[in-house]
Structure formats: C-alpha cells, structure tokens
Amino acid sequence: MGLLLLGLSLPAVAQPSETLADHRPLITGLLTLKDAVQRAKTAGFAVLIAEQEARIARAGVGIAQSARLPLLTINSAYTLANNPFFYTLSPGPSNIPRNSAGEFNLGLSLPLYTGGRLEAHLAEATAQGDAADQDVDAARLAAIFAAKQAYFQALLAQRQVVTYREYVRHREASLSQTRDRFAVGKVPRVYILRDETELTAAQQTLIAAQTFYQSALADLKKALGVNPASEFTLSDGFSKTAPTLDLAQALAQTKHHNPELIALQLRIQASTAQVQLATAVYLPQVSLYAQGELRTPESDGFGSGSSLIVAATLPILDFGGRAAEVEKAQANLSKTLLQQGAKEQELAQTVTQAWLNSQQAQSSIQLAQAGITLATEENRLAQERFAVGRSIQVEVLDSFVALLRAQLQEIKARYDYQSALAQLEQAMGGDLP
C-alpha cells in the first residue's frame, strides 16, 4: 500500500512472495498497551532465548544430581576367531582356549567420599539454574520496557502527525485567503510568496512526522516479534500523571526485586561452590565398584564370578594443576562480586535518573497545560480581532502556531513521563506500587 501524504500517493513497492520475518504472527485491528506488553513478554525472541538458557541450566542440575547416585552398566560381547585368543570385558586379560566365546558383565559404581566435590557441583548447578530463571525475568522486564517505549513513541508520533496535518490545513487556508486578497489588490504579491514558503515548510515537517510514525511502528513490531506486514491501530493514549513513590522507596525496591541483582547474588553462590569444587580435589576420592560376570564357555582360570572393590585415589603431584584450578575459581568469585557492585551502582544511577525524569516530566505537563490554556485564549482573541478588521491574518496564524507548539510540548512531556515510569518499572523489577 502506498503511503498517503498530503493527498499524494507514493508508488507502492512490489512485494516478493517471501519477505523477512514473514513466518512471524500477523496481527491486525486494535492494539492495546496491555496486549502489546503481553505479546512482548511471552513471544519476544530475547525471552524465548532466555527460557532455553534456563532449560539448559536446569538440565545441569539433573546431571549434577545423577553424579551422586549409583551407576549401573551392562556390557556384553560375543567373539569368533580362528585361533585361541586373549579377550575379556573385565580388567586384565585371561586365556580362552576356544575359537569363540561370549561374555556378559553387570557393573555397579557408587562414589563414597569425594571431599565435597559432588555436593559443590550440585550447589553450583542449582545456583546457576536459579540465576538462569532470574535471567528469564530480566528478559521479560526488558521486553516489556521495549514494548512500552515503542508503543509510547508510536503514540507520540501519531499525535505529532495529527498536529502537523492541522498546521498544514491552516497554512493552505491562509494561502487561499492571501490569494483572494491579492486578486482584489489588498496585499502585495510578496505575501503570497511568503505563505507558499511557509506551506512548503509545513508540508516537509508533516512528511518527516509521518516517516517518524512509520519508523515508530516498525520499532513496535520488532519489540512484539510480529510480522512486519502487520497492520494495527493503537487504541490507548497517554495515561494521566499520578503521584509516584519517592526515590528512597524506588532504590529499596530495586535492591530487593531487580532480577539482574538477584541473578548476580545466585552466581556468587555458584562461584563459591566452584571454589569448594576446586579445593575438593586435594582430598581423597573413594568409590565402590561391584560387578558380576557370566562367560561361556567356561574354562580353567576363566569362568563366571563377581567382585566387590573399594578404590581410593589421592593425587600427589600434578605440577600446579590443582592450585591453578583453585586460583581460577577464586578469581571468578572475586569478579562476580565486583560485577554485583558495578550492577548496584549502575541501577542506582538508572533509577535516580528515571525518577528525576518523571518528576521533571510531571512539571512539564503542568506547564504545558497552562500554556495550552493561554495559547487557546490568545488564538480566540486573535480570531475575533481579525473578524472585525482589527488584526491581520499573520497574527491569527502566529497565535495558532503558538497553540500547536504548546500542544506538542504537552504531548512530548507525557511521552517523557510514561517512558520514565516504564524505565523505573524495569529497574525496580515490576509494576510501580
């Protein structure tokens, strides 16, 4: 579909049979902010990727748990040969004076003592799994913020298009009146040239606003993870301002509910477990092995039987390998602690700035509303003066421009306010109280 600008239609670009992201959902009709948020936090690519990362981490917990439990194995073999040979599944070869032989082996192994290695491995995997769940929450909050910001930006652009279209309409009316007055000799031709110049500038501004609106819709479609060909209408507007919590409350809620901070706390636990895991290799590793064997045909020195073994190992000399593993784990723990401090500092700055932006936007909205009231009255008086011949058309247009400017300032202030609240919600880890 061509883009309609000022009654002119740009040529439509031929669409190929397959386009980028054409497999994504195609949405039409009215789109509320609530629907946009719901779609973003459940179908956004970043959220889906984080969910798979959490799935991987949870699988790691299962792997760590299984390492503490008995391992049962079954082995079997049947061999054909043209000469007597040595072969067995069990440790150590035995002579089988046959040209064929079969063997069945059932084995069981169980770790008895690992110096805390398996427990540390499980603790690390559990903490990493919980941290991955927090990463999913963080991805959802980021997706919600992106959807809200894109929705608000599209609302801002939409309102700007309406405002600039009204401005173009007034400029066209002014040019028509100037031409009429020139035709009867009331104004010189320079007035026509001036109005034509102003109309051209207004049309260019409108084109820029329409382009910004289309760009904002593209950003919104990306945030929602939908087909770029989706055609929908924004059904919500900017909500009214409301008292927000104070800065101290915002910082406190961020400290206790931000999922990125919680994830870092869990990763500190995982890093601590890594240190314990690396240290455990300095202690003996004791395991129980049991196996039963069935061989056919049996022969002297090579029959069926069973065995029970308790084996202990203790590395004596590894040329610094264990010490390096401990150093690596301790450095990783220190790095995670530093990352936690850096994240706290970053969030404190983000929350403070977003809170300040919300306060400034509230004040700007109040000032803009007062400006609209004044500009509306001034425009009314200018029209009355012009109607009785006590002013010229330029004064009416100037007063109308002042009114449009005040309206645009109010729209921008509401956008800034809603964006600041959305950023606060993301940093604080949820909806504002």
Report on this model:
With 433 residues, this protein is of the alpha+beta class. The longest helix has 67 residues. The chain is elongated and about 125 Å long. The chain starts with a strand and ends in a 5-residue tail after the last helix.
TL;DR of this structure?
The protein has 8 helices and 10 strands. The protein is an alpha+beta fold.
By DSSP, the count of extended strands is 10
Structural class: alpha+beta
**Model regions low in confidence, pLDDT < 50 over at least 5 residues:** 1-17, 91-97
Q: Topology as H/E string?
A: EEEHHEEEEHHEHHEEHH
Radius of gyration: 37 Å
Could you give a short account of the major beta sheet? 4 strands, antiparallel
Rounded average pLDDT: 86
Widest sheet, order of strands: 4-7-9-10
Helix proportion range = 55-70%
Identify the overall geometry. Answer: elongated
Strand content: 5-15%
| Helix count from the secondary structure assignment | 8
State the separation between the terminal residues, measured CA to CA.
44 Å
Properties at a glance:
alpha+beta, four-stranded antiparallel beta sheet
